[in-house]
From TrEMBL:
The species this protein was found in: Heliocybe sulcata
Span of domain SET: 214-347
GO function terms (MF aspect): histone methyltransferase activity; zinc ion binding
SMART domains: PreSET (SM00468), SET (SM00317)
Any one Pfam family match given in the protein's UniProt record, by short name: SET
GO biological process: methylation
Keywords annotated in UniProt: Chromosome, Metal-binding, Methyltransferase, S-adenosyl-L-methionine, Transferase, Zinc
GO cellular component, one term: nucleus
Localization: Chromosome
Annotated Post-SET domain residues: 364-380
Ranges of residues in domain Pre-SET: 139-211
Protein name: SET domain-containing protein
Gene3D superfamilies: SET domain
InterPro entries: H3K9_Histone-Lys_N-MTase, Post-SET_dom, Pre-SET_dom, SET_dom, SET_dom_sf
Amino acid sequence: MGEIHIPEYTAIRASSRDSSLGTGTEEISSGIRGISLETWRSPVPSAHRTYNRARDLPHLLQDHINSLPPRYLKSDFVKAIFEAAISESTNEDEPDAPQIRIYNPVEGDDEVTPPWEFHYTNQMWHGEGVPGPDYSSLRSCGCKGPCDPRSKTCSCLRRQEEYTKEALNRKGFLYDEKGRLYPDKIGFPIFECNDLCGCSDECRNRVVQKGRTCSINIVKTKEKGWGVFAGEKLIPQGTYIGIYSGELLSESEGEERGLKYNKFGRTYLFDIDWWYLQKPGVDEPEIKYVVDAYHAGNFTRFLNHSCEPNCCLVPCYVNDGDLEKPLLAIFTQHDVQPYEEMCFSYTGDTDGEGAPAPKQADAIYVPCRCGAAKCKGRMFK
Ligand SMILES: C[S@@+](CC[C@H](N)C(=O)[O-])C[C@H]1O[C@@H](n2cnc3c(N)ncnc32)[C@H](O)[C@@H]1O
């Protein structure tokens, strides 16, 4: 008898029924008369069976474009390919998102696209030693229809309130009825309903997982390289714009890459060191994972630093129960005017006042060109 391949998360059950009677279930012949093997789907959704590994990152398109003669690299044709590659790699995870366009209005600068040095993706790609999503510890609710923000039984709401109720003395989810983050709830981790929950897609606690809905463009700036700008419409305060996607690396790998990136003057590393992940009484933040958007990422890798930012990063959990691996979700923290540049603070200082600058010994500083009235004059990169 040949070997029976058991697919991940598909259980196999032996039964003594005569398979010729038919059971209505999917059956695999065991090769033994009177014994059938029935397969059934585990409650774990198929999206979780596999996850992206950094070592599998696609690179053929970038390699091909980079091998073209320089006149092509500066052509509108290559720009159209860049925009199409963005749409193609993201149309499944942000189906309601307007197309991203690329513009370079800087006089005398003939670069038509950002460098083709990365794979465009809205997903996380796990590096060596970084485990895939942990759904065994994922908590989910059994609500029917959309979750009620005043529910006494919704376990997702209870989970959310473990982090916010005491600090804010206010109950409910972090999103309002339009799916916007309440301004006084910025800085708290978001626990969205997930694929194992009973609630419907219309549940107000599902925002990040539905992807971007607002219009943004990637635009070259005079002094800061490429940046992210709002499209033709105002983007209201609290709007989700995207996750800071890329490779999810161990701290040691992130550290090693940081040393290299510092030498060529641009870095796309982001430490996952949120306050609620720290042990009480420990001064130096403990970092387990780092996100690197250099080789893989989306438009958020072009968000520049501002000392008076209009966007902020918020940790968000959807389909991974591991607290150490939140998604880095980016929201507007003020209304963003049409065609205004969108920025966040690289020091985590969300209001332009409070958060401490990184220690001199740890960071490399460059002159800041954010142009804000309260600009500190230098930024760490
Ligand atoms: C994450 S990248 C942002 C995208 C970048 N502008 C690009 O063209 O790829 C960070 C780099 O952008 C530049 N940058 C970002 N904010 C800046 C600012 N306020 N002033 C000067 N340079 C800035 C620095 O070179 C920094 O290392």
